[in-house]
Amino acid sequence: xxxxxxxxxxxxxxxxxxxxxxxxxxxxxxxxxxxxxxxxxxxxxxxxxxxxxxxxxxxxxxxxxxxxxxxxxxxxxxxxxxxxxxxxxxxxxxxxxxxxxxxxxxxxxxxxxxxxxxxxxxxxxxxxxxxxxxxxxxxxxxxxxxxxxxxxxxxxxxxxxxxxxxxxxxxxxxxxxxxxxxxxxxxxxxxxxxxxxxxxxxxxxxxxxxxxxxxxxxxxxxxxxxxxxxxxxxxxxxxxxxxxxxxxxxxxxxxxxxxxxxxxxxxxxxxxxxxxxxxxxxxxxxxxxxxxxxxxxxxxxxxxxxxxxxxxxxxxxxxxxxxxxxxxxxxxxxxxxxxxxxxxxxxxxxxxxxxxxxxxxxxxxxxxxxxxxxxxxxxxxxxxxxxxxxxxxxxxxxxxxxxxxxxxxxxxxxxxxxxxxxxxxxxxxxxxxxxxx
Amino acid sequence: xxxxxxxxxxxxxxxxxxxxxxxxxxxxxxxxxxxxxxxxxxxxxxxxxxxxxxxxxxxxxxxxxxxxxxxxxxxxxxxxxxxxxxxxxxxxxxxxxxxxxxxxxxxxxxxxxxxxxxxxxxxxxxxxxxxxxxxxxxxxxxxxxxxxxxxxxxxxxxxxxxxxxxxxxxxxxxxxxxxxxxxxxxxxxxxxxxxxxxxxxxxxxxxxxxxxxxxxxxxxxxx
Lengths: 437, 223
Prior knowledge:
The complex is a heterodimer of chains A (437) and B (223). Chain A has 437 residues and is α+β, with helices and mostly antiparallel strands. In chain A, 49% of the residues lie in helices and 19% in strands. Chain A is elongated and about 115 Å long. Chain B is an alpha/beta fold.
């Protein structure tokens, strides 16, 4: 009979319930959308941050020895220690290989541009977009285009192989250098390299490079070209790695201070999570004699933004919870007043207060479940709109959102109904059935 | 041999502050008796009905219903007495609007013990509504709604039926039908206490109790 009453109350009094359900749907859809985004925001932010460049820098171990006095680097091995180019594919073979978006090696050498200026500048060699066979993926391509999408070239990118068939090699001229020497795409320049046995070589400027960094004062050529000019075949000085990592949290910050401070369980959890620090450690383990340094500004910025977004989500969720709880509360008061005679009749027929409570709270719970389910559907759509407008991509729907959202919706409906339901105790059948006492 | 006393009040009094709408009522009702309580507006009829139906507690005096002294019971205990011993019929019918006629009758079963749709259908057939069981109150006439209310009052075989102006909202034709039902219930041996202004209803009762200013001014056999 109880379920019959519940069902009939809904089917025959659906208009009365529709408003309460709509209130729940509004808050549930907002909570669903925010939960979805909150869960997905780490991945979204990580991908977003990748457009700002690499987040790990790999250098030879000896380079990492700090020997700086008054801002001057006295490390005698600086620029004299190298990483073997042949070892680089191993970066893509670590445990978190799927999180490695790309990597680009660097080798620089000093050159003098011949001509009236005789300006001494850096010639930087790197991979632009090169196929690197790795185990399991022979088609894998990586390079500076992938790692540093913010490198803008006005003109064309040079070819990857360097000078071919007697043709001059191809370079990019940094924007500042180009302005200073009045260079433009298509110009030919001659550079002189080697102090002991100088040799000259001609290059064609294929494009003007804008990076916002030191590269704007240099020439950039393919790695093979620079290795040949510097006489350092198969060597690189550093590697920039772009990895998808999870935002920094308490555990990773603790590990950042010292991984020795972690107990074994914490260490396992840290090592098996794609923190920028644990990915760095695995790169060090994969390539001999290198130090892999996270670029903390990127990682910390990512963590800070994610934390702030998640905090905002929590605040908005609580606000939605309170607002809809108050809405439900107001609607319940109205409903109880409207149904006072029905409540009085139930009591007159022998219903205990708790039995009347049970009916009203069950109605609220059903409103919560229905509102929660509809809210999930509406919230899924809303999260896609937010995802597309903020991140430019859809937000993946997490199934965990459904039970959590239904539970929250039922909680909103019940907490909103609980206080007004106390009115039920104060309704005396003698008063409400006869309209007097 | 005299029939057993189903209802007895001794000095039953109700006060609201300085107002005493019901003052020292002494009354006995025997099993199978039909008693009409009459009186002008403000004489204390409804207050008395509220006390007799355990919807309210007296300020003083005793009220024994079917062997249970109810005057000192808690609200929770009065709920149990209502459920077990009293069948209520209201002037305004008071049917749950979203439940059918059958479900309205079953509602009384539900709060009493357990539902039995067959019994509920029989109770509706008994009041001539066997063909209207699936109708909502809004689809029934006033007379039909009152008959559903009577079927609901009878379904749990209560010790006493208390009716408050049962024909007060009915037209003449429906009043006749409801009156016939009460006559039938009386013939079946039901104990009925009926509050009414209607002298025709009182005419068929065994006894008329007249109230004035909260006191019994007349209590004698109607015949």
